[in-house]
Amino acid sequence: MATLTVPNPVTDKVITALEQAIGKEKVRTDLGARIARTRVPAPFPVHRFADYMPDVVVLPESAEEVSAILRIANQFRVPVVPRAGGTGLADGAVPLHKGILLDIKKMNKILELDLVNRTVTVQPGLNMLKLNEYLAPYGVFYPDDPASYPVSIIGGRIGTSGWSLIGSRYGHTRDLVISLQVVLPTGEIVRLSDGGGAPKVRKASTGYNLKQLFIGTQGTLGVVTEATLELFPKPEAELAAFFGYESFEDAYRSTGALSTSGLGTLAAVILFDERKVDYLRRDDEAYIPLPERIKAVVATALYGVEEEVRAAANRLFRIAKETGGEYLGDELSAGDWASRHDRYATPLHGRLPDGTVVPMSWHCEDAAIIYSELPAIKQKWHEITDRYIQKYGIFDNWGMFFYSNNPYKGWGDYLVEIDIGIWEQALNEETWQAWVNLKREITQATLEHQGSISACHGACREGDAEFIPVELREGGFELMKKIKRLLDPNNILNPSKNYLHLAYIDEEVGV
Amino acid sequence: MKQVRKGVVLRREDLHVFEVDPSLMTRVPQDVSDAEQARIVRNRWEYLDWMHRHFAQRTILLSEVADVPAHGPGHGHS
């Protein structure tokens, strides 16, 4: 069995081969290019920055160039880590073993707009905001809407199987991709769709549905080089309505009632817990004036044809009122909703236990949890987080959100998120390990409550990844290992992510 | 300077921008001029308006549709 426990270093021979294959101008070894692609916005062990710096950055412009890079990596047995916008919160693009960093941002062309069949075919380096600016004059839009909407790019969304803020109306990334062109780890270029090979057919029963296998791989099975995407009519109208409640329990029940309302234009239901409201009342302009009696909030948003949105708004308001909700006003509702498309623009600071302000990075710990378990998981995650804050003092609990998580409906499981500020400059090895242990305890609680480790970020980070074999213990992880070995025999593509180094080691899994 | 709640102050009524109590900002002191603060606030609203237009042709407010006050609790200032 092939192994890559100690990956080969990138030598001058590798650099020369890359330069000959794709051109010198697309191969960067300068420190600036490498530093800029070492980490992502998630908390990072800055005291060990150099451990993760790639040896070389390549910027291909075509599937053929990606293929050539992967063939060279196989020849020299060096790792390749694909990177899109670098906005992920689970370290998918962090080069754990250094090596070649494959940045897809130069592959940003719109290849075909088909208004008759409502598709657009693009290269993966394109940003959704830019795509929608191009689409707007045609009255259509691509509704993949993460919190990083202005800065993340399509290839990364596919690589992480991202979640969309308005996914309960329009679907999430996996539902919006019709077909893919993928370069396999060994360099072959393949076209994959919902069974069959027709690039614009959404539903087929011919052959395996291989497209989904390549969505959410965190770049471990292939590099997406082209995607055909779903187009929707640009909504005539949007309406956001935020409601306040005097207890979390009331807001939780209201979330259930709103999510199961059956309103076709309902794009999102978001529950804010008491700690989130406390945090916002402390540090968010819009929420500072909110009276203390408001303990929890439910945010809703509608999109669609104007007549439908207006009618649905009345029903929405009636449900919220009957379940104890109080409308929080037009300014807060519309303003907060618009800001949710771009949470990465938020300047980050947090508080030490004495209330003093310090710069903090944002950690967004996510999981997929079924509705019945939300109150229990809230209690456990806060207990864990508060214990670490009390002991180490460099973390800050920013509260929890619970987002509707399923395509075309509000009910089912929820994207549960606890936001934690981390004072990165104060990190050392002891506090970093404390942080990882905090994450481990949160992950264990998730699994104890029948949840999945991640709803949208991926489970690549230390503290998450080692639990993938546990969550997929009924044969799923064994199958993942076989698929990884089959497609990537030399373990060159994003090695060790998703704990898949175990695919190349003959030993029992255990955490 | 008016204390709005614990840890929050309002320095200028006309701008109506809440700020962290300066006594809590000793580790990261900030010196932002009034003009710069006004520019940041104005640009923020312009950006949010742009975001609304980007996602839909029209933004409808609940107060246009249902019998609710336009201002929520504690937000009657603007």
From TrEMBL, chain A:
This is D-lactate dehydrogenase (cytochrome). Its cofactor is FAD. Residues 50-234 form the FAD-binding PCMH-type domain. SUPFAM superfamilies: FAD-binding/transporter-associated domain-like, FAD-linked oxidases, C-terminal domain. Coiled coil: none annotated. It comes from Thermomicrobium roseum. Keywords: FAD, Flavoprotein, Oxidoreductase, Transit peptide. Belongs to the FAD-binding oxidoreductase/transferase type 4 family. The keyword Hydrolase does not apply. GO terms for biological process: lactate catabolic process.
From TrEMBL, chain B:
It comes from the Bacteria. This is Uncharacterized protein. It comes from Thermomicrobium roseum.
